[in-house]
Specification:
By secondary structure, the chain is an alpha+beta fold. The chain is built from 10 helices and 14 strands. The strands form 4 sheets. A 5-stranded antiparallel β-sheet has the order 10-6-8-7-12, sandwiched between helices. The C terminus is likely disordered.
């Protein structure tokens, strides 16, 4: 097969939002230009690593089409059911000197193939990629456009059944006010420094050649009916008992403005203590909101992280296990705060550029 044929097949397999792509180097950014076959060819040739946004709004033009956004790139009268995707994946990060991750590279590979086994039990073929950083992506390719809600719930159900730690499923949302969402770096970058990374692998770790993977993935696409059936297995939100205050109520620092002060002194509403509400909601979403408000009010991130730690210990217990703080509680809160500040600076509400 010629390089041109491989690029075309690669494009068909990983197509997503057509009007932007993620420049997925060490400093990922969104490039607002129409995707063409040349972008995929450059990726495979090792000239420019490519990240693709999975979420596409109304690709069959029932409403306004993918390019029909208005002011601030928001779709007018957005209809959530019109969000679809042509692939989904589960991300698992490996530990490193600079990243906590979900486990060692060997553990992450085991987790990924456990997820793949659960998917196979639901008649959903999947493929495991060893990522650039030694983590894993578990890819699923439906046989036609799939509702993002169904894909996301299918992957969440798989995570729940497998019982292994993961970073997140993609798509990261069931719907959005507008594009582009969050991108994923594609495998098989031509100039990767390690040839056994950014590739689809067998369970023994052996890399699968690109042409073989493309043939198998397109010959064994998941049926929409099976994805919908798996989506129904996702656990419904469960209300958990609100954590009692572990410290006496305290006055907020004097430099806090009224909204921030109210959150700091009185904690979150009861509604955040409902689990499995999805991205941007629940306890994590409330802590993120606090950090975003603090950024808006001009507080530096170094001041906000200790406040978040105090709030998690007194109220939310988001980063707790068995009644005790997780070993990486401070790291997770630092990451949350930095994300909130980054989004505020780029005016990107609840969106993340995936590395």
């Amino acid at each position: 097969m010629t390089g041109s044929d491989l690029s075309s097949w690669f494009h068909t397999t990983f197509h997503g939002f057509p009007h932007a792509w993620g420049e997925s180097g060490d400093n990922p950014i969104t490039i607002w230009e129409d995707l063409t076959l040349a972008h995929f060819r450059r990726h495979l040739d090792g000239k420019a690593p490519l990240g693709i946004y999975p979420m596409v709004y109304d690709p069959t033009n029932k409403h306004v089409g993918p390019r029909g956004w208005g002011e601030n790139r928001r779709y007018p009268d957005m209809q959530p059911e019109l969000w679809v995707c042509s692939w989904g994946c589960i991300d698992i990060d490996a530990q490193s000197d600079h990243h906590k991750g979900q486990g060692t590279e060997d553990e992450v590979a085991d987790y990924a193939f456990s997820l793949s086994t659960v998917l196979a039990a639901q008649n959903i073929p999947s493929w495991v990629e060893r990522t650039r950083s030694g983590g894993a992506h578990v890819w699923v390719f439906p046989d036609t456009w799939c509702s993002t809600a169904d894909m996301r719930r299918c992957l969440q159900a798989t995570e729940q059944i497998a019982g292994v730690p993961t970073d997140s499923p993609f798509p990261k949302s069931e719907s959005l006010p507008g594009p582009p969402g969050n991108f994923v770096r594609l495998p098989y970058y031509g100039d990767r420094p390690h040839q056994d990374r950014q590739v689809i692998i067998k369970e023994d770790g052996t890399p699968i050649p690109l042409e073989n993977f493309l043939h198998d993935a397109n010959a064994n696409r998941a049926k929409i009916a099976d994805i919908k059936a798996a989506a129904l297995l996702k656990a419904t939100p469960q209300r958990i008992e609100r954590r009692p205050l572990s410290h006496e109520s305290r006055d907020a620092p004097t430099e806090m403005k009224p909204n921030l002060k109210e959150m700091f002194e009185h904690g979150p509403p009861q509604s955040v203590f409902v689990e499995n509400q999805g991205a941007g909601k629940g306890r994590h979403g409330w802590l993120y909101k606090f950090a975003a408000f603090a950024c808006r009010d001009g507080h530096p991130v170094g001041m906000v992280v200790p406040w978040l730690l105090d709030l998690d210990n007194r109220f939310t217990h988001k980063f707790y296990n068995n009644g005790k703080p997780q070993h990486d509680q401070l790291y997770q809160l630092q990451k949350l705060a930095e994300k909130a500040f980054q989004d505020a600076e780029t005016h990107t509400p609840r969106a993340r550029l995936y590395r």
